[in-house]
Amino acid sequence: MRLPRSERRKKLEIYNDILMAIREESQSGEVKPTRVQLRCNLSYDKFSNYLEELRRKDLIRNSLAITPKGQQLLQDYERISQFMKKMQLDYVDTEEISYET
Fold first, then answer.
1. CB–CB of 65/31 below 8 Å?
2. Which of 25, 37, 84, 100 could form a disulfide with 47 if both were Cys (CB 3.0 to 4.6 A apart)?
3. Phi, psi of 72 (to 5 degrees)
4. ∠ Cα 78 64 58 (to 5°)
5. How far is CA 71 from CA 18, 20, 52, 76, 89, in A?
6. Residue 100: inside a domain
7. What is the pLDDT along the chain (101 residues), one digit of tens a residue?
8. Residue 26: which domain range?
9. Does residue 4 fall inside a structural domain?
10. Cβ neighbours of residue 12 under 8 Å, at least 6 residues apart?
């Protein structure tokens, strides 16, 4: 069953979910792709595509380790999320914002 478009996660949210899952898995030992995939609730194909995007953007390494740039994204995402909650903003259309660097 597909979610309505308004309830689907945006790409930035998925990036954050993957990075958070990698961080959590790394605290308990070896990071295994299948466990990260399950935590993020993504199909194998989509998960593989997102991992490749994260590698190209230098947010993760091939060993599923988060780079300093990836750590910065996690911190920035958390800060923005806190701000949105504080300001009671329920939704910001992140598709209009370019995250390419």
1. yes
2. 37
3. -65, -40
4. 65
5. 12, 10, 17, 9, 24
6. no
7. 555 655 788 999 999 999 999 999 999 889 999 999 999 999 999 999 999 999 999 999 999 999 999 999 999 999 988 888 888 765 555 554 445 54
8. 9-92
9. no
10. 77, 94, 99
Dump the DSSP string for 60-96.
Answer: B-TTSPBPHHHHHHHHHHHHHHHHHHHTT-----GGG
- The amino acid at 9: R
If you search the block for the tokens 């780079």, which residue do you land on? 67
In a domain, 55, yes or no: yes
* Residue whose C-alpha is closest to residue 22's, from 71, 95, 87, 88: 71
- Number of domains composing the chain: 1
pTM check: above 0.70? yes
What CATH number should be reported for the domain holding residue 42?
1.10.10.10
Expressed in angstroms, the distance from the first to the final Cα of the chain is 35
